[in-house]
Write a structure and sequence with these properties.
By secondary structure, the protein is an alpha+beta fold. The protein has one domain: OB fold (Dihydrolipoamide Acetyltransferase, E2P). Helix content is 15%, strand content 36%. A hairpin with a 7-residue loop joins strand 4 and strand 5. The termini are close together. Keywords: Signal.
Length: 145
């Protein structure tokens, strides 16, 4: 996977050098969860606390490589996963910290489980149960398969 990332950086030119390359270990190791109080209107949702490193990256452009997943029949909700669909966290392999919500600039034309490197603005979700803990806004992707 590192080989593909190097190719991606070469293809993107000098602008990519200013971007921060994240690894899934940065995301899975950079978050901890606290159960919210019983008065919480969203039982089961855990409030996230992010590491100083991740907090410092919020609002910055980053690059992350993972598997492209489409979440609805309209093909309008997307995420990047550490694992392919058959073993993503919905199926018991990892937790919600192993996926990143994607908000593309333009509708992507990738298919389920394509291996992608995605660049975008990192957003962290500490307390909204309707969003992913991690999100990339203004995302652009390069297919690696």
């Amino acid at each position: 996977m590192r080989f593909y990332l190097l190719i991606l950086l070469f293809c993107m030119g000098t602008n990519a050098r200013a971007q921060i390359i994240l690894d899934w270990s940065d995301l899975t190791g950079g978050i901890s969860f606290q159960t919210l109080s019983l008065e919480n209107p969203f039982p089961g949702f855990n409030e996230a606390t992010f590491s100083e490193k991740l907090s410092a990256l919020e609002g910055k452009e980053v690059i992350l490589t993972g598997f492209f997943l489409v979440l609805d029949g309209k093909q309008s909700m997307y995420m990047l996963s550490k694992n392919p669909m058959a073993s993503c966290f919905f199926c018991g392999n990892g937790g919600p910290e192993t996926v990143v919500g994607l908000q593309f600039k333009e509708k992507p034309f990738f298919t389920m489980d394509n291996l992608l490197s995605v660049q975008g603005i990192l957003r962290l979700n500490r307390d909204n149960p309707n969003l992913y803990y991690y999100r990339l806004e203004k995302a652009d992707a390069l297919r690696l398969e």
